[in-house]
Amino acid sequence: MTAGHGCVLPPPEILSQIILLVPRETRRSCLLVSRLFHDLAITVVFSRITIQIGAWEYWYHNESHSSETFRPHENRRATLAADILHRITVDTGFARRVRRLEIIAHKHGGSNDDCVFQLHCLSLAVQNLVNLRSLIWYGTRPVPSLEIVEMLAKACPLLLPVNVLSVRPHSIRSIAFTGTHLNLWEDYHHHISNYATIDVHGGSLREICIPAMWAGSIQPDSLPNLTHLELLFLPSECLATLETLLGQLPQLQSFAISSIDDQAHSLLHALASSFEHNTRLTSLAVLDYTREYRLTPEDLQVLSDFLSNRQGLRRLRLAYICPWLYHRQYLDIISTLKNLEVLWLVFKARRFTRDIMGSLARCLPSSLAALGFLLHAPVVEAGSFHPIWMSCRQLEYFHVRSHALMESVEDAIAGAGTLKVAGRNGRLHSIEYPQGIPVVSDHWPQDMVMFRREEMYGCPGWEWLTRHSPMYAN
Q1: Domain of 402?
Q2: Are 181 and 163 in contact (CB under 8 A)?
Q3: Largest alpha-carbon pair distance within the chain?
Q4: Pick from 349, 469, 361, 331: which is nearest to 404 by CA?
Q5: Domain for residue 104, yes or no?
Q6: Contact 268, 302 (CB under 8 A)
Q7: Is residue 306, in this structure, part of any structural domain at all?
Q8: Which of 43, 154, 234, 390 is the most exposed place for a label (fewest CB within 10 A)?
């Protein structure tokens, strides 16, 4: 293929792949190069569209600013959203290029009654998104209307992951998906209890994320093929049926569960009783939204019974607090998981020192690629993390949360040789080694952390480590 001035261009299919490799923020420039580049780049540039309703910055700052401070952001985004939705509605050729739709819904005072116009415009646009493959809805102001949900089911036959990250489906009684993923969850458990459940069915479903109180609505035809299940905000009354449910999931590879009541001991017993049937399990997350439960020696024995020597386990996230008095028993369990790649643990001590972290580091699997800690202590001494860099030679991601007095990220990672991302209390930094010494970048922008995606991290395991957790920097 020959361009002007005697230039020979690669075939279009090669050019398309080149444009894919161009940084996202510069791809739009390809639209202006020539007609050929425009036609090739437009699919790449607009394959993922983000519609913002409101100003998420207001909520990011915990409402500490007046909503008027962010009014210009809200107005500018409303105008842009209207333009995009109108283009999708009137230009079916453009609409067919959209593969992924993200909605960021954080409008101040943004109930569904306050956002009728925006929701209706979105519904009109959805009916043209015949090639839509992924939907992610962040936020609750507003939540998806019944009109939008019904239009998605009717007009988007290729839709696979449906990630409605906050939903109150009081008017949705049944959803049948032909795709493989269903993700419906609410970020405040008390909202869920106010609404009816839904029927979840479809033999092709492989991944489901729903409130735990809806677990009984998963129809039997979906259970044998499920590989990924996340049950959030488990109420006490649903604990009795958990063991039976897990026993019907022979293909289960990834399981996450979070509790809202003081039921950790019973939950661990239920997991221990059922996991002998789940031999394919590679990922396990046990979350605690109270963030207060402390493991007892009896709990640690139960953990040992069903976790020790699970060589297939690659990811483990345990959010219960381990008092340092019992750390040896806890770490003995972790040390048997030789193939772990992703790990998150919570400890409580009077202070964390280099010697204490050294005893922890000696029990960590050498294969770890991502590691996170929540440390309850008044002080974390300088140089405490150095033993980890020496023991975990493949570690690429590290994040610590603590209200303790602590050295800077730059000082904390001194001696690290493989880290790519490091963070403290929700602020993430990229790490480079221009002279063989780790150099820390400025922290990632707020929106990258708040609306994090797998591709942003570069490794799905890193995103998994922070899933269902707030990442507000503090």
Answers
A1: 312-467
A2: yes
A3: 77
A4: 349
A5: no
A6: yes
A7: no
A8: 154
- What proportions of the chain, in percent to the nearest 5, are helix, strand and coil? 40, 25, 40
Q: Which amino acid is at 187?
A: D
Residues 6 or more apart in contact with residue 330 via CB below 8 angstroms:
295, 300, 303, 322, 345
Tokens at residue 255, please?
A: 């399981």
State the total domains in the chain.
2
- Angstrom distances, CA of residue 20 to CA of 15, 302, 458: 9, 49, 15
Q: How does pLDDT run along the chain (474 residues), one tens digit per residue?
A: 555 555 667 777 787 777 777 776 677 777 777 777 777 777 777 888 999 998 888 766 665 567 678 888 889 999 999 999 999 999 999 999 998 888 888 887 767 777 888 999 999 999 999 998 887 777 777 877 778 877 887 888 877 655 444 433 333 333 333 344 444 444 443 333 333 334 444 456 677 777 777 777 777 777 888 888 888 778 888 888 888 888 899 999 999 998 876 788 889 998 988 887 788 999 999 988 777 889 999 999 999 999 999 999 999 999 999 999 999 999 999 999 999 999 999 999 999 999 999 999 999 998 899 999 999 999 999 999 999 999 999 999 999 999 888 889 999 999 999 999 999 988 899 999 998 889 999 988 887 777 777 766 766 678 888 877 766 555
Q: Which two tokens stand for residue 389?
A: 């860099």
Q: Is residue 137 part of a domain?
A: no
454 domain residue, yes or no = yes
* CA distance linking residue 87 with residue 147, whole number of Å: 20
